[in-house]
Amino acid sequence: MIDSFWQALTFTAGYNTTLVTLGSAMLGASAGMIGSFIVLRKRSLVSDAVSHATLPGLVLAFIILALLTGDGRWLPGLLIGAAASAAIGLWGVQAISSRTRLGEDAAIGAVLSTLFGLGVVLITVVQALNVKGQSGIDSYLVGATAGMLASEAQLIGISALVVLIVVFMFRRQFLLVCFDRQYAYTRGINADHIDMMMLLLLLTVTVIGLKVTGLILIVALTIIPPVTGRFWTDRPSRLIAIAALCGALSGYIGAAASSSASGLPTGPLIVLTAFLLFSIGLLFSPRRGMVAMLLAQHRFRRRVHLRQGLLSLARDEAIYDDLTLKVLRRHGYIRRDGVATPPGRVAARDAEHEEHLWSLYRQLYPDEAAQLDHQGLDPIEESLPPDMVSSLENRLPSPARSAR
Amino acid sequence: MSSDFLILSLAPLLVAIISSMSCALLGNFLVLRRQSLIGDAISHVALPGIVASFLITGTLAASAMMIGAGVAAIVTLVLIEAIKRLGRVESSAAMGVAFTAIFALGVLMLEMSDASGVHIDVQHALYGNLESLIWFEGLDWTALFDPAALAELPPQLPRVAWVGLLVAIFVVVAWRPLVIGSFDPAFAASVRAHPLLTDVTLVIMVAITAIAAFEAVGSILVIAMFICPAASARLMTDRLLPQIAWSQVFAFASAVLGYVLAGYGPGWFGHDVSLSAAGMIASVSGIILLFACLFGPRRHGAMARMAAD
To answer: How the protein sits in the membrane (chain A) (predicted)?
Structure first.
């Protein structure tokens, strides 16, 4: 199993598997890219409505194809049907949220559940018709790349590539509309058209992804990679690049993993790979990761304890807190029995002096002081300009100044 | 004919009506608070919860399944909150990350274990199996008054009935904080109506209702029933009590019409088959919403009316 996973990763597991793996990677990249704009527009769950809305069109196309040709499993025809009903769903969400008082959330939920319900009814019609290839329909729910034809994989890969190129070409307009519609308007860009274009590209990705991840999980490929990107950067252009990369990696690894053993569903594996990449960001991102946050909190706590401990030393107060004692001992400011060492006494005097300066600053300039982060903890020479520090020094009442 | 109805249709029809109406009751508050998609997220993660509980306990007992689904719902809500806070993304994206990942895990566990053999599968979880709720003792109308026969009713029926009662009691007891919190959270906090506590309780009630209904009617119907009747009702009136009344009427009508159309509709055209009742009920509720969007007297909202005047 490990062997065949490795073979699929290195494209040596045969022509079909290679095509499927590459196609999925391409799909992941384009989904991550267009998804970034949708997430930035705060409409991520629109793609959930779009993907569920594909079902009735898909099944209807299957019925028509089955009645005409005897076998309904012709991928391009099914995708056209899916796209048509997804477009109706998209229009429904737009119309309900713009022309009635209902919010977009209600519009999404209503369209998603009703059209999916209709699709389920049509599936029971298919079962009643008793035509060939019915079980093919189920593979569109959770995705199955096993037994995918080479032509189907090519179709998916090439369409995804086209979407990728179009998104790349229009990335500036898309970003402008995401962040500042007014400005886009003054630049002569029709924001409504650009919005519509983004949604149509989203629809295209959703439809071509149906066969790979299934219609319930394709939404994940358009949401998880952009959110992952958000952990690593604040710049939109990098966000899009990272999202595309994460999407491609998820598609690639997930499809390879699913080809390594029979009966492994592709969609869930791709989504779980994406979620794994997301979890790495959630835990280890230096900007917003949980580990980085915990470390920062830990460091901050020790700084507070060190400062309070030094102030207590300067005032000759007894220290009882274990953490404070530990931090002071670690810095060599006190001995094991709690008596201050010579460097400890110097540091304590400095800390007290600084505390006097800070409290004077807070007294004289309360508004400015309130705006500083961690005021009173950072060394005052680093936080305030030198002339301000020297003027504060001069204004200190004499006993505190002479202590220096 | 009458005994056919009692055996095959009475229990599923009642289950459909009761679950629809209790979902719609809570749905009013979800729609007002613009939190409709919480129901979507919770009903998607019920499947992973059920699969996990089956893999751990090895039984398909209702209690184990409900606990599994409940745990999955709680895990999802915590995950959504964590992603929102840590990743600083807006709630719909956080929701999309959490519920798709957990759903994917559920499908993977299902396909890799033997559980797919024992009558839980993805399709079942999505479509429900209303049609299988057969009352074998319902031979004729007198069975309705026979305690021994009534005890043989499918266990889903009393379950959704109890949950429906619980939902009704919750709405009556928590009426004031629910209403204030839906319209003005800041004011709710200032008059000590505990908006946070109300939010959490509402979400827990949504989870309980979704899970109880899920097994019988499937997750898609649960989502439809949380949103469609309440959304249609919102377009009919500006007042909350009439809105709730409308939502109950719509939910009842969708359940009955959908069930009848699915069960007997094809028969009218000479086909001896039946269609998915859950799917049909969802479709009917969507058609009702479509009409409400087109003709509902209050479809535009107060601001638009003021602008028109």
So the answer is: Multi-pass membrane protein
* Residue B145 counted as domain residue: no
CB spacing of A114 vs B280 below 8 angstroms = no
- Total count of domains within chain B: 1
| Interface ipTM | 0.88
- Residue B253 C-alpha, separation from nearest chain A C-alpha, in angstroms: 15
B140 occurs within a structural domain: no
A275 vs B104: CB contact, 8 Å cut-off?
A: yes
Q: HSE, CB side, 13 Å, CA atoms: give it for residue A144.
A: 13
**Spatial CA neighbour of B75 closest among B54, B105, B55:** B105
SS3 (DSSP) at B236: coil
Contact B226 A109 (CB under 8 A): yes
Phi, psi at B12, each rounded to 5°: -60, -40
Name the token pair of A48. 């959930």
Nearest-Cα distance to chain A for B2, in Å, is: 26
Cβ-based neighbours of A85, under 8 Å, separated by 6 or more? A53, A54, A55, A56, A57, A58, A60, A115
- Three-state SS across B132-150? HCCCCCCCCHHHHHCHHHH
CATH at residue B19: 1.10.3470.10
Per-residue pLDDT of chain B (309 residues; tens, 9 = 90+): 455 776 777 888 888 999 999 999 999 999 988 888 888 888 888 888 888 888 888 776 777 888 888 888 889 988 888 888 877 778 888 999 998 999 899 888 887 776 555 555 666 777 777 777 777 766 667 767 777 777 777 778 888 899 999 999 999 998 888 888 888 878 887 887 777 888 888 888 998 888 888 777 788 888 899 999 999 999 998 889 999 999 999 999 999 999 888 888 777 776 767 788 888 999 999 999 999 998 888 877 766 666 666
Q: What is the DSSP letter of B299?
A: S
Is the residue at B121 inside a domain?
Answer: yes
* A148 in contact with chain B, both atoms CB, cutoff 8 A: no
B289 contact residues in A (CB cutoff 8 A): 110, 114
| Range(s) of the domain holding residue B99 | 2-134+154-302
pTM score of the predicted model: 0.84
B147 in a domain, yes or no? no
Contact residues, chain A, for B101 at CB < 8 Å = 220, 224, 271-272, 274-275, 278
Interface of A with B in 54-113 (CB under 8 A): 95-96, 99-103, 105-106, 108-113
Q: Which of residues 196-235 of A touch B (CB under 8 A)?
A: 216-217, 219-220, 223-224, 226-227, 230-231
Ordered by where they begin, the domains of chain A are 2-285 (1.10.3470.10), 291-403 (no CATH)
Q: Which residue has the higher pLDDT, A289 or A115?
A: A115
